[in-house]
Amino acid sequence: MLEIKNLTCGYTGNFFIQDINFKVNAGEIVGIIGPNGSGKTTLLRGISRGLKPKSGQVFLNEKDIWQMSFKELAKTMAVLPQSIEPVTMSVEEFVLLGRIPHLKDLQFFEGKTDLIIAKESLRLTDTLTLKNHLMTQISGGERQLVLIARALAQQPKLLLLDEPTTHLDITHQVRILDLIKRLNRDLGLTVVMVLHDLNLAAEYCRRLILLKDGRIFREGVTEDVINYRTIEEVYKTVVVVEKNPVSAKPYVLLVSEEEIKQNLPDR
């Protein structure tokens, strides 16, 4: 579904990601991880046409995204930013913005089909009861769910998320990522998401892309990427990696300097 070839992009006189190559198959959940400043958000912006490549190409269903119209791209790919400023409109009105790519030329108002799709998107994200609330009146966790509802209203095949759990408590983190996993399973939605938390990435993603200094340091299934040697080399901090006793996924444990001296002198 998504193929990135030799992608180099970034900001003039500032940071660039370089020579990025990977593929995402339909139905996958792929996580992008890495330290602060490693290029995670820059990569996501390059994939979503938020940044023009200095070199390389991004293909969506074998089409160069820069050769696609806005409507064509938005009907296939939906993007969730890290956060948005609350706007003074109802939740339902906000979700209906996701229908814009589907409006016909000279169509200025949503039709019956658009309203049905928006309602279903709210139902899928368990936010239907909020539809008449103002966006300024709901919590941060609810706002993230509504953002996902707006993306679903686009009826995309590919969903890109930039740190969807940032600033949320563990209840909302699990709620958001359980929803993403359910949408992937039930709707066949392909997902690429930037995650700051390594344990959430390991638990919810089938494959991981680890960035370091603007380049791919390692890519593969979760177990091949999340191990103590790799994490220590990239993040420059001592960790212990164990298996989650329930899911058997890798789980990263931090170790304080004092404990390192007492219990891990060789590290």
Structure in words:
It is a single chain. The protein is of the alpha/beta class and 267 residues long. The chain is built from ten helices and twelve strands. It has a six-stranded mixed sheet, sandwiched between helices. β9 and β10 form a beta hairpin. α4 packs across α5. The longest helix has 18 residues. The mean pLDDT is 92.
Tally of contiguous helical segments: 10
What structural class do you assign from the helix and strand content? alpha/beta
N-to-C SSE series?
A: EEEHEEHEHHHEHEHEEHHEEH
User: Runs with pLDDT <50, length 5+?
Assistant: none
Distance between the termini: 42 Å
What best-fitting shape do the alpha-carbon axes yield?
globular
Percent strand: 25-35%
Mean pLDDT: 92
Blueprint of the fold:
Layout: E1 2-10, E2 16-24, E3 29-33, H1 40-47, E4 55-60, E5 63-64, H2 70-76, E6 77-80, H3 91-96, H4 112-124, H5 140-153, E7 158-162, H6 170-187, E8 190-194, H7 198-204, E9 207-212, E10 215-221, H8 222-225, H9 228-235, E11 239-243, E12 250-254, H10 257-263
Parallel strand pairs: 3-8, 3-9, 6-7, 7-8
Antiparallel strand pairs: 1-2, 1-4, 4-5, 9-10, 11-12
